[in-house]
Queue: 2 jobs
Job 1
Amino acid sequence: MRIFSGIQPTGQKHLGNYIGAIRQFVDGQDRGDPSIYCIVDLHAITVPWDAATLRASVYDTTAILIAAGLDPERCILFRQSDVREHSELTWYLSALTAHGDLNRMTQFKEKSAKQRELVSAGLFFYPVLQAADVLAYKTDEVPVGEDQRQHIELTREIARRFNERFGEILVEPELRVPEVGARIMDLQEPTNKMSTTGGTEAGTVLVLDDPKTVAKKVRSAVTDSGSEVRRADDKEGVSNLIAIMAVARGISEEEVEREFEGSGYGDFKGAVADAVVGLLDPVRERYEGLRPDEAAIEGALSAGAEKARAIASDTLAEVRAAIGVGPG
Ligand code: ATP
Ligand code: MG
């Protein structure tokens, strides 16, 4: 069972990333053979970026992942741009990707609408690079948040098309989204997902926020004019907090509803704030110990890249031979 997933080094990672993705990465660490996690700096340059900040953000994100429980000895943790095979495979796969399929991607529609100066072709091409990330490792399972479902479907479609034409070389990966918390919403705008690049500042809890800030953001979460702590389609804010509480406490959403039956929103939000602080604070503390040692982080990333390259280069050799590129 091969597990692969990626995470962007843009800005700081948030509670949605932690619950939807990072928590699953840690769980997958011992199920995967191997489990492979990639800091996707090539994806980050599809929207405006600053070179020095990008390099530093890769260290930030790597330190967050290690602080959250990834062990570079037990998984393959690396920086995407270190393994050039991803870029090469992107081009080969582009020849089998329908332009019309890329046109349907909702992430492109949403992100391109937010760009002020340039909608890059890279932003449009993002899902092909993502398909290459996953397919280069013959991945069986991709742990991600709900927002990545459409991209993984496209990845499967590209793999199918490749295999129909050139033989069973690539693997159609399965999506793995968590049962609870696959789509954590912005606390201030609970109809939008919590996001690194979109979203409101007050509604986005960062993994590295200090406990006071975390508590303040959770206590100020938008709820509704009612008073019942229960999930419902027209209670997006409260439903979101119930999911967050369930994950932070390691209990079911039903149990959260039972526990807070009859409580007001104020008490409930206070309890969620405490639970989220309890979840994130140990991660922040470990991060602070790890982040200053950039040489150690770089060492872990380059060791990871070597292991990743060993797998990806085998796939690339098969792909090149099959499609007729290069000498036979
Ligand atoms: P951006 O908005 O720039 O795409 P992001 O917040 O989605 O950034 P990514 O690095 O693209 O961050 O996503 C990393 C992982 O976190 C992906 O698996 C994604 O599905 C998951 N994820 C992102 N946002 C959420 C969310 N609000 N709830 C649950 N999972 C999420
Ligand atoms: Mg994203």
Job 2
Amino acid sequence: MKAIRVTEHGGPEVLKLEEVAKPTAGPGQVLIQVKAVGINPVDTYIRSGNYPGATLPYTPGRDCAGIVESIGEGVKEFRKGDRVYTSGTITGAYAEFALAEVRTVHALPEKNSFAQGAALGIPYATAYRALFHKAQARAGEWLLVHGASGGVGTAAVQLARAAGLNVIGTTSTPEGEKLARENGAHHVLNHSSANYTEELMRLTENRGVDVILEMLANVNLGKDLTLLAKFGRVVVIGSRGKVEINPRDTMGRDASIHGMMLFNAPDHDLKSIHAALYAGLENGTLNPVVGEEMPLKDAAKAHVAVLEPGAYGKIILVP
Ligand code: NAP
């Protein structure tokens, strides 16, 4: 089968399309014929060598969707031909076939495309965990999704809107703004404009927001703390550097900063998250946005694109 292989850490050019042996499903494992692969920023961090997550040589990727090709001994949850998506793989998702432990394989509703399925594993699970497990967001609260146009942000906006929150999203482009509104954001601000914080305070009648989901904490965290209402919570989802904060901004508000890493979520939480996602897909409140599809051989291009400004839903590779 064809797969993207990484034999040395480095820039996107280290992603090479190669011929490798097709895996076979062992006990408790599922072999999936991959129809779509979700590109996540973390795939680029691991590839560059600055982040744990893979031993060389390896095939990148945790998120894919496709059809069950075969099941290993003891697997009762799936049959050959089932439509599924993954939240982890053993052999890597950037390939024609991917082997996964059954606990990381989830049913994909008929009405969702494989590309949409590949957008679920990391982005939707992260958004769900940040909103409901970490921030404990409740209907009627005000939420700022700081970075509402990308994979996690679009998921967060859909989940929050369906749960009855007042949703403010930020993006940096008119296309991103339109997308955030279509996904359910009540208000959209431009995070690169000088006065978006004033606009947020005006929208909330100077109260501030209850929850902030932060995609780029190294830029925004200091300011975020001044935008929180009393008992406000910030969840740090993404950060690419250091930032200065004034701890006093948390004190008067009894505010909290929650760090989160989806990979730390225990299995029972993941089970609950994916059950909730299935329900949302089924009832139509969740509808993953696929911005761009590229052939598997263009993995390097996809790794460049996913880090560029102007996010628009998910970038998907098609084997
Ligand atoms: P993505 O699809 O590339 O989207 C990035 C988002 O960040 C876009 O909405 C982008 O908006 C926004 N953004 C860029 N500059 C910003 C700024 N100054 N202020 C606020 N938002 C800004 O990436 P993703 O998959 O959604 O992931 C988002 C971040 O979360 C990444 O850093 C990723 O590594 C991290 N992440 C962490 C976890 C975890 O477990 N902690 C899980 C998944 C992802 P524009 O392009 O419109 O400017």
